[in-house]
What we know:
Elements lengths: L33 E2 L2 E2 H8 L3 E5 H16 L5 E6 L6 H9 L3 E4 L2 H9 L7 E3 L6 H9 L3 E4 L2 H14 L3 E8 L13 E2 L4 H10 L4 E7 L10 H21 L5 E3 L9 E2 L6 H4 L3 H12 L11 E6 L1 H4 L3 E12 L5 E5 L12 E2 L2 E3 L7 E7 L8 E9 L6 E5 L5 H4 L10 E4 L5 E5 L4 H5 L13
Helix pairs in contact: 5-6, 8-10
Bound molecules: pyridoxal-5'-phosphate.
Amino acid sequence: MAEKKKYERPIITKHYSGLMNKFGSRAAASPKSEIDGVPIKKLISEFGSPLFVFSERQIRSNQRNALRIFKTRYPKVQFAWSYKTNYLNAICSVFHQEGSWAEVVSEFEYDKARRLGVKGENIIFNGPHKSKEALLKAINEKAKIHIDHFDELYEIIEITTEMNLKANVAIRVNMDTGIYPKWDRFGFNYENGEAWQAIKRILSNKNLKLIGLHTHIGTYMMSADAYKIAASKLVNLARGIKDEFDLLLEYIDMGGGFASHNTLLGQYLPAEEVVPSIEQFADAISTGLFELPLKIDEMPLLILETGRALIDDAGYLLTTVLANKRLSTGQRAIIVDAGVNLLFTSFWYKHRISPAQESGIHVEDAALFGPLCMNIDCLSDGILLPALKKGEHLVIEYVGAYDTTQWMQFIMMRPNVVMVMEDGTVELIRKSEDLDYLLDREVIPDNLKSVK
Ligand SMILES: *Cc1c(COP(=O)(O)O)cnc(C)c1O
């Protein structure tokens, strides 16, 4: 016999203007009780709460899908995984197994990629800060160094001259793509001729080998057309290099920034309805690149520095209800055990948050707070949720990008991170932190050791 449904008392809900619109009210979150077939309850009972969970299957499928879309539009494509988006070893390894190179923006990320077995020549070294030691290592290991500014160019010239080395370099170019504010703090500007200056200086130095051009025009880009404009501008530079110096570039690197399906705070419609698809980004980029008047076998390799769009929907944060209360306004408040220290992206995303169990159909507007004793610890200040009891669970979705790199140990430690493997097993990929972990880094001066 079917289990008897739980009794729910009738309730009267106050409706606020703006909640209803011609698309109807937002559907109440339906329960999300498992991830790739593994029950949320089981994950939490084995690994604790809060808990980050990644899906190996989803990562691989995102990568394969995006690669197929680009490769059907342009003949030569190479992905490089953006480490800062998520540099957990297990995550990077999945991308590397799928053929991605590494894209790093710091020396420690560079070393992390090397320790994972990525060859120097398959590392793209970006970013405004590369120490002299880091540059020397990258030059020796044949990494692709993307120069950010003239001072870095001079430093590379100094190092290579002093030690008689050859460096493989590209420049990062910034430009007006019709998206404002412009991202002009990284790289050399296209419109004012700075990029062309940098190119000429590189080509006039025998220790530097110009192998490519790079741009990364922004993050969470809502316009595919901006990529076409950017590709056209890099193509103009590549054409100039061919015409004036008779040099064919190995690659054009269009960066990352493709929007994922997270909905921005203040964005009215869900992301799925407003964000361009990977197909549209790929169409825009290949259209721009095909403006190059070259034979097909002379066309540069297209590199993409893939980030959030390939990982966001493969990450979940599981959390447990600690308490229910009413704010003085009458608004319902739910306190959960995951705080904003674990969910940096809550500052710009309206995450999809679903109950992990059947909790009834009546929903009520609620504010969701974390466990930190800080007023800012609010995960969502207006979300429709059914009644939840202490001890029940919520699943915060689309947290694969940036949350496990920008998280911090603040009041609470960072929790376990697991991966649901393709075969249905669950592997711990980062151990939760504890007091010993914290104290291991601290040093207390002798005369402060005794507390009377
Ligand atoms: C952060 C970054 C990326 C990845 O950006 P997403 O928005 O995560 O796609 C790619 N390239 C560079 C240079 C970056 O700094």
